[in-house]
Amino acid sequence: MPIRVAHQRTQMTLLLTALVAVSLVSLLVGAGEVGPLRSLAALAGTQDSDASFVVWQLRAPRTLIGIAVGMALGVAGALLQAVSRNPLAEPGLLGVSAGAAFAVALTLVMGASAATLRISVAQLGALVGCLCVLSVTRVRGVGSDPVRLVLAGAAFSGLLGSLTSLMLLYDQRAADEIRFWVIGSLAGRRLDDLAAMLPSMLVAAVAVVLMARPLAALALGERAASGLGHHPGLIRWCVVACVALLVGGATAMAGPIAFVGLVVPFVARAMAGPDIRRTLWFCLSIGPLMVLAADMIARVAVAPSELPIGVLTALCGAPVLVAVVRARRLPSL
Amino acid sequence: MRANVLRVGIVGLLLSGLWGGAAQARTLDTAFGEVDVTGTPERVVTLYEGALDASLAAGVTPLGAVTTRGGDNVAEYVEAHLGDERPAIMGVVREINTEAVLEQRPELILAPARLTEAQYRLLSQIAPTIVPHSQPIAPDNWKDEARLYGEALNRQEAIEVAINAVDERAAGLASALEEAGVGGNAFVVRWMPGGPMVMSKNLFAAGLLDQVGLTVEDAGLVGERGVHSDVLSLENLSQVDGDWLFLATLNKDGREALEAAKQSSAFTRLDVVKRDQVVPVNGQLWSSANGPLAAQAILDDIEAALLP
């Protein structure tokens, strides 16, 4: 056991180093003409107003937002999977992000536009999405079969997607703004958006820290958890609230981004083993890594334009989903 | 006595109309072959914004028309040319409600160049359906289309007058702008939350900007057949930093789009923004409509924004 812990410590150090490196590269590359060398010079403080504008005003905010979104989605995925005991329970796949995006689109059509309103609305939508998902897991036969849960989630996402399209038809003037809420992107987001989201992220972080031990106990089964003095029902409610805060906040910042909540905990479990407390720590560094890497490819792949980041996370997430499903025995959590 | 004279007059007019109409059977060259039209149709349905515009310019208010792109009624600039009678809505240009067309019992249907053959077969059973030949995107396409619609309506002269009026107005505006020393290059963009889409320099509005002496550019971002570019990265905004920036939006108020764009620091540091030479314009008119009346409305916008 000590060997394993030491091994994990090395892995963690490696991951954190990789995260710092990727964040730095994220400041250096982009769709524009300010290349890595000019960006480096701007970082070092030379008088190049164009380059320092691009680096500090455009790339730095989206890097920070990418880190926050990656952390939120990775942790939310791990939480949702732990509480539903299903390795495929991903907020994007199950319609939690779709719920958040739908709620925002609805308020936009109704005429709202305040940035602070958006976050609470998105979180409320995510909460409703979460509750729908978890009530589905309670239906006999669905909850015990991970794939069926994903099918139910896909149906739910499809329903919300068609409702969002309906609103597009109803009010095409809001179409441009709503389209953002259908695909998701880190481009053009401002630090204000991040600042507005920080409080709820912090609340969720504190709650997750407090819940880590009970969650680990819950993994042993409801009876065992009760025997250890925890309240499974209460834990579940807290997790749902946390997932709603995290996914709603991330969606309010970057739109719905699918598959991050699937891939990140999947990799984290492979590295950390079954203990949810370690998995969560690993998610905190793997999540930002994945989102930042996807965002960088989104920036340079079709320069001078940019790809929506959701396309890239789906590109690397879909094979993972297939791999998990095709594995001979679905790991049950 | 007066009523009698009036009555005789009306009957005479109607008779002469009938007689004249019968004599004026004509054959039109359309995308789906030759189509015969007789008389001066009054019951007309237009299934294209350019057709609605040409029809109004020729003095015929259609019984039915499609909505403007992104709206749920005809374009706002059209309102000024409508009397008490409003055209009924026949759906959107991509999805025409054939039953609504049938309900109007039209004598003539003016359709867009991109009408599909299946739709044509249906519509041509209702009334002679005029579909212009599709052409590569060019700023002057609207003139050919308007002339074809005008011929179908038997009001060629009115259309000719309207087209000439546009050319004269544009020429007049061009010399006024030259006198005022206004010129240079211009970009037409649509602002999206992630960045702008650059509109093609081959579009209708771009042609009018060219006519009044500005050089419309697209920074090589729009393909030959494209109507607009993909959403340009905010890092590349300097590519649309010209002398003038026309900011189109489907929002009712172009100013809203300008406000949205101004929230982005990448936008506010453009020279053209600092010089305050950004012109918010209505996307319904600037990126969707065409025809002689739309041209006049766009020239109104240009005159108001550019002439000191």
From TrEMBL, chain A:
The chain crosses the membrane at residues 12-31, 63-80, 92-112, 149-170, 191-214, 234-267, 279-301, 307-325. The lineage of its organism: Bacteria, Pseudomonadati, Pseudomonadota, Gammaproteobacteria, Oceanospirillales. GO terms for cellular component: plasma membrane. PANTHER family: FE(3+) DICITRATE TRANSPORT SYSTEM PERMEASE PROTEIN FECC-RELATED, FERRIC ENTEROBACTIN TRANSPORT SYSTEM PERMEASE PROTEIN. One of its GO terms (molecular function) is transmembrane transporter activity. It holds the Pfam family FecCD. It is found in: Cell membrane. It is a multi-pass membrane protein. GO terms for biological process: siderophore-iron import into cell. Its main location: membrane. InterPro entries: ABC_BtuC-like (IPR037294), ABC_transptr_permease_BtuC (IPR000522). It comes from Vreelandella subterranea. Belongs to the binding-protein-dependent transport system permease family. FecCD subfamily. This is Iron complex transport system permease protein. Keywords: Cell membrane, Membrane, Transmembrane, Transmembrane helix, Transport.
UniProtKB/TrEMBL annotation, chain B:
It is found in: Cell envelope. GO terms for cellular component: outer membrane-bounded periplasmic space. Transmembrane segments: none annotated. PROSITE patterns: FE_B12_PBP. Pfam families: Peripla_BP_2. Its main location: other. Keywords: Ion transport, Iron, Iron transport, Signal, Transport. InterPro entries: ABC_transptr_periplasmic_BD, Bact_iron-sidero_bind. Residues 43-308 form the Fe/B12 periplasmic-binding domain. Residues 1-25 form the signal peptide. GO terms for biological process: iron coordination entity transport. The keyword Transmembrane does not apply. Belongs to the bacterial solute-binding protein 8 family. PANTHER family: IRON III DICITRATE-BINDING PERIPLASMIC PROTEIN, IRON(3+)-HYDROXAMATE-BINDING PROTEIN FHUD. This is Iron complex transport system substrate-binding protein. It comes from Vreelandella subterranea. The lineage of its organism: Bacteria, Pseudomonadati, Pseudomonadota, Gammaproteobacteria, Oceanospirillales.
